[in-house]
Amino acid sequence: MERGAHNRLVSVAMGMLLGAAAMAVHASIAVAATPIRIGATLPLTGPFADTGQWVARGYQKWARDVNARGGLLGRPVELTILDDASVADRAISLLERLITVDRVDLILGGYPGTAAAAQMAVAERYRKVYVSMGGHMASFQRGFRYSFGAPPLMGEWWYEGVWEWLATLPAAQRPQKAAMITINNPVGAAVRSSAIEGLRRVGILLVMDERYDVPLATAEPLVSRAIALGADLFIANGFFPDGVQTIRAMKALNYNPKLVLQGIGSIIPEWVQELGADGNYVVSGTPLHDRLPFAGIAELAEAARQEFGVGTTPQYYLFGYAWAQALEKGVQGAGTLDQDAVAAYLRSHIIETIAGRFTFDARGLPPPYRYTTQVIEGRVELIWPPEVATHAPVYPKPSWGK
């Protein structure tokens, strides 16, 4: 073969090789840029939408922040949130659809605890890491390998700080009789069980223990009975809508106990929007607050104020962000989307999120929390424990209109 022809052949061959290499590089870049698809279901409508929508906003904020930092494992994240309409069965079927039909890479947790407990079993069946509020203690005692509460909204821990605080008061200053009403579902049952034990610890007599179904037609008969029994501590283990009804019934009947505990609902902005000054002085628990001394939480609170114009950062916005952030830590730490590797990393390493720095035990739980809140002048303040308190407890509860 002539030298010129040979050189032309070599040149063509080299060009083809370089072209193939370039195509391989471009293909690699395309694969790397393929979004990581993340799916979740939340109650965007229905009775739990007031809180579910804030969880969704927390997830969405996390996704925007991750993408602004260059993505997860170098890939953008693409978030899909389906509306389960506050129906647990629908939360199950939609999560299964996300996993088996849409084939998402990762999943995020649902709300409330009834949906989360059901979805934990789905996640276990499909071997998907599931970070959420959990379905209270019972759901973490089923031996699941892939579920984590980061932090959990644990009914059994919800009033822990309240009992600690009351124990510091002289016995004569504590409430003497408690009336308790509880929503008839697993969430209420979890809070109720811990309340019974807590009352026993601080020596307060439980004189009324009523359950109710939702929707609650009226709270006035329940409140009237508490008045008749002379209860100076009222415990409402329910959600936002029935909690609002209960407070309105208390005011209408001029019932003003020393202390009012509200299970779920008083830590979202809608509480003050609905009740105004009547929503003040209600005490509740929380695993998270915008003025806890944890990295990133102050910046997130400021972002919420700017985006939504709220005076108090919605706690469920923080929860959503924290649950997504914990999943992110697991994926980053494992360096892969392999679910077994992510679960193993979370179970064996300290992680740090806006909810603090913690490890998970064999159940997928961090250490118990005891943060206690009180609505004071329209703001959700931390009143316990003392080392993180933003305001002293207002006790006993002032009269209506004060």
From TrEMBL:
Which residues does the UniProt record annotate as the domain Leucine-binding protein?
Answer: 35-362
What InterPro entries is this protein classified in? Answer: BCAA_transport, Leu-bd, Leu_Ile_Val-bd, Peripla_BP_I
- Residues in a coiled coil are none
Q: Which domain of life is it from?
A: Bacteria
Extent of the signal sequence: 1-27
| Keywords from the named record | Amino-acid transport, Signal, Transport
Family statement drawn from the similarity comment of this UniProt entry? Belongs to the leucine-binding protein family.
Under PANTHER family, the record lists: ABC TRANSPORTER SUBSTRATE-BINDING PROTEIN, LEUCINE-SPECIFIC-BINDING PROTEIN
Tell me the protein's name: Amino acid ABC transporter substrate-binding protein
